[in-house]
Amino acid sequence: MAFPFRQLADGLTVGRAVSGLPLILALQLGERPIAWWLLLLAGLSDAADGWLARRAGGGSSWGARLDPLTDKVLIAAPLLWLASTGGLPLWAVWLLLARELLISGWRSQASDGAPASRGGKLKTILQFLSLLLLLWPPAWGGHAALVILGWWLFWPSLLLALTSAVGYLRPRSASHRS
Q1: pLDDT at position 61, please?
Q2: Among candidates 173, 83, 90, 79, which has minimal Cα distance to 123?
């Protein structure tokens, strides 16, 4: 019974990966509602594929490697767009992306794809929530308040990103010394 769950989890990951291009195109074309829905569906599918993989007794090694990379694309694209439009400071986005590249490189060295820590998972949730609020379409109402809330959620997500990076790298560094 684990096989269909594993296949579904991998299928959701692929679908999420493919949604990155339409997401950035929607932002560039000023189609915020479409971008917002794509990001929401991506976030929900991330949670669903994790649940399915756990239900299967563990995901595929392929899915364990693709899932975090897909998350990076879906978070990096809107972050870069927001930085390019002045919605977020460029230095903060670059710092976050540098962290993501560092941890992705570290994960690629691990045979199991290095599962996410609790801090890393919380960081991803905060990033998705922050981005959903920052990208809230003005036509839907409440835009100013929600964008401010998104701005305030971005900073704890950045702090969590940096502290969780230290947590990922610390044990690895210690094992290399012995």
Answers
A1: 66
A2: 79
